[in-house]
Amino acid sequence: MPLKSKQPRIAPLETPYDADAAEALEQLGPPIQLFRVWARRPDLARGVAGWGRYYFSRQSALTIRRRELVINRTTALCGADYEWGVHVATFAEKAGFDAPQLRSLAAGSPADDCWDVGDRAVLVAVDELHTTSDLSDEAWAGLVAAAGEDGALELVLVCGWYHAISFAVRALRLPLEPGTRPIGA
Question: Are 122 and 143 in contact (CB under 8 A)?
């Protein structure tokens, strides 16, 4: 099996940014490495920003806790240290995650004692989507009971989106952002 390079494959933009890239980065948020890679293609960056603006707004049917359960579990299952680190550093406290919950998200199970019924239903759905690309009737019913139909729909989309993000950050070989930690650390 060939070795995988640890060197980043596409260099993030560096300052000074041209006007188009700067405007795209402003829409994305803090100029982390992933955003600076996307900003190499400002139209791509603006498209991604539109998606993110919705899911990180109060318009989303998902609470911050449910959204971060989906994102952190998905990135952990995909081995995406970069994205896990960014989300844990930025949102874990806001989402109310404690140390046992972060350990469970990284390497545990939805059956772990640290989860309530609603969180467990979300994690069962994420795990099932990850392994089967589908949801059983039982998992769907549990998810709808926990998050409502609108929340269930959004959860499926966020889970899929963060699979794509996980694929990107792993394939790009992005190193951890300063002040973040890898999965399980």
Answer: yes
Which DSSP string do the residues of the chain spell out, in sequence order?
-PPPP-S-SSPPP-SSPPHHHHHHHHHH-S--HHHHHHTTSHHHHHHHHHHHHHHTSTTSSS-HHHHHHHHHHHHHHHT-HHHHHHHHHHHHHHHT--HHHHHHHHH--TTSTT--HHHHHHHHHHHHHHHHSS--HHHHHHHHHHHHHHHHHHHHHHHHHHHHHHHHHHHHTPPPPTT---TT-
CA dihedral 110, 91, 80, 178 (to 10 degrees): -150
- Report the C-alpha gap between 4 and 63 in whole angstroms: 37
- Widest distance between CA atoms in the chain: 52
Digits of tens for pLDDT over the chain (185 positions)?
A: 566 778 999 999 999 999 999 999 999 999 999 999 999 999 999 999 998 888 888 899 999 999 999 999 999 999 999 999 999 999 999 999 999 999 999 999 999 999 999 999 999 999 999 999 999 999 999 999 999 999 999 999 999 999 999 999 999 999 999 999 999 98
